[in-house]
Give the backbone structure.
Amino acid sequence: MKPSTRHILLLWMLVCSGTTQAIEPISTTIAVGMAAALTGILARYQNLFYYFHECCRPEWISFNKTGLRNDLDTKLFGQHIASRIILKAVSGFMSNENPKKPLVLSLHGWTGTGKNFVSKLIAENIYKEGMDSSFIHVFTSTLHFPHQSQSATYKSQLQQWIKGNVTNCERSMFIFDEMDKMHPGLIDSIKPYLDYYDKLDGVSYRKSIFIFLSNAGGESIIQTALDFWKQGRDREEIELKDLETSLSLSVFNNNQSGFYRTNLIDKNLVDFFVPFLPLEYRHVVQCAMAEMKARDIKPDQDVADMVARDLVYFPKSERVFSVKGCKTIESKLDYYT
């Protein structure tokens, strides 16, 4: 049963009114009475605390499959492969009460194609607090692991961070951004947590989610998209099988990438390599229209076209794909609206 406004107010008065400080004798009676009342409330509403503080419980962590499907359909543009994989992978994992290992997704593609955005959509449809949840942990390579000489220290810290956070909540999510800028070998330190173990030192990692974001492999994705375009084939004809093998190999063999010769790939611990295709002019227009709607501005096709025309496209002569995808849409709209 949900607590009434009167009960919430009483709890707030007791916790927040400073009764833990020195009080006058006459106030003692009031405080004791309030404490007794609070004890009664807590006995009646055992889950009262969870309404005020995010906890690792279904009240705060609950997967919304319909919401994720709708978000992918209406907010992510030009990514038919990624949308399908993400929905099936996340839905299957979250509906499994006894997964054998954590869900490991590796999202690849050029800048501005939607990798960070998809991570945000996943978070918003699992965690009530979305990306602000205390159970979501984002690591950015250039910020958290800048010095190669400190790799040994980073490995130890990374293991401690993951173990500590999963101990706190088995439904934790870890997002590693800029994997293409991570020092090779570092990510192997978390390999045991991604493997098929029931528990490690008493901790189960099987219900956690690991998402890796990288520009590595973007060239092979772009080349495939260009080949389809040159052959006059629709981009929606591109399937995962056209990209997955070349993508994983190019990432594995890239000595400038955090995935270089990593055990995570060698031991098949990455569940899905998710390709993000380069975006065309029409997708940039869709991004602009969606951003106007998100700002409670009436979507204007003319404004969206101006924004899209203002971007740089490649190949230079054909102007097929946006160099920065939809990444600069927000700042462009600030200028045109």
